[in-house]
């Protein structure tokens, strides 16, 4: 519901001025800037810890986060903000990356926490969460998509560059939804730790995928998918 026509109250339309007034009001609601969205998967972490707070980054994970931070800094872009999941591994990844991007504000959110977005098709034998998890996590992750992946506000004058540091399932689902692919296929995508996925949202609402799970900036012995 971000099409300009959905933002105009047609009932308040002046019948005397007709189409000219409508065209003017629609133009006022049109986005003018492009949003660049960088989705970063957290680095490698200790998967065997029983409590979420103890699932901290491994030494390799910390190296990966440093490499990702250096890569983002090397792009020479003026990043507007970093939004990150409130889970421990995402927080630690954010802290390391943000050292390479001084002055960029950080925002934590529960919406981007890891979960089960939607039952995958085809199903897989090695991962079968309880059905209720899809209802709980799916609604939250869909809310994250709707909240963060959209065209720029009409008031935004310049292109924006935003970083979202979260989790593989969340990123894979968001990519499918943003490209209008069947979201049930999210589990067919694979993302390395510390990888960069770059979505572009044009003013007309069209979405392009520039990169998916890029880790070409990491030495081969630093790449993992845990």
TrEMBL record:
Gene3D superfamilies hit by this protein: Phosphoglycerate mutase-like
Broad class of the protein's primary localization: mitochondrion
SMART domains (UniProt xref): PGAM
Highest taxon, organism lineage: Eukaryota
MF annotations from Gene Ontology: protein serine/threonine phosphatase activity
Key word Membrane present: yes
Subcellular location: Mitochondrion outer membrane
Function description: Mitochondrial serine/threonine phosphatase that dephosphorylates various substrates and thus plays a role in different biological processes including cellular senescence or mitophagy. Modulates cellular senescence by regulating mitochondrial dynamics. Mechanistically, participates in mitochondrial fission through dephosphorylating DNM1L/DRP1. Additionally, dephosphorylates MFN2 in a stress-sensitive manner and consequently protects it from ubiquitination and degradation to promote mitochondrial network formation.
Record's protein name: Serine/threonine-protein phosphatase PGAM5, mitochondrial
Organism of derivation: Mustela putorius furo (European domestic ferret)
């Amino acid at each position: 519901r971000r099409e300009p026509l959905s933002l105009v109250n047609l009932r308040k339309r002046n019948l005397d001025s007709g189409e000219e007034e409508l065209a003017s009001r629609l133009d006022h609601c049109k986005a003018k800037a492009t949003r660049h969205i960088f989705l970063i998967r957290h680095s490698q972490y200790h998967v065997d810890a029983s409590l979420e707070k103890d699932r901290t980054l491994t030494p390799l994970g910390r190296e990966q986060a440093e490499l990702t931070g250096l890569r983002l800094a090397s792009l020479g872009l003026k990043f507007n903000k970093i939004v990150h999941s409130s889970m421990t591994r995402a927080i630690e990844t954010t802290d390391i990356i943000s050292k390479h991007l001084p002055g960029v504000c950080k925002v934590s959110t529960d919406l981007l926490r890891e979960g089960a977005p939607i039952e995958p098709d085809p199903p897989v034998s090695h991962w079968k969460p309880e059905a209720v998890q899809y209802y709980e996590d799916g609604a939250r992750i869909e809310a994250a998509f709707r909240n963060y992946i959209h065209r720029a506000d009409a008031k935004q004058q310049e292109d924006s560059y935003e970083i979202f540091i979260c989790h593989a399932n969340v990123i894979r689902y968001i990519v499918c939804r943003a490209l209008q692919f069947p979201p049930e296929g999210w589990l067919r995508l694979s993302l390395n730790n510390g990888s960069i996925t770059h979505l572009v949202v044009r003013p007309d609402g069209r979405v392009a995928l520039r990169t998916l799970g890029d880790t070409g900036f990491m030495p081969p012995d630093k790449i993992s998918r845990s």
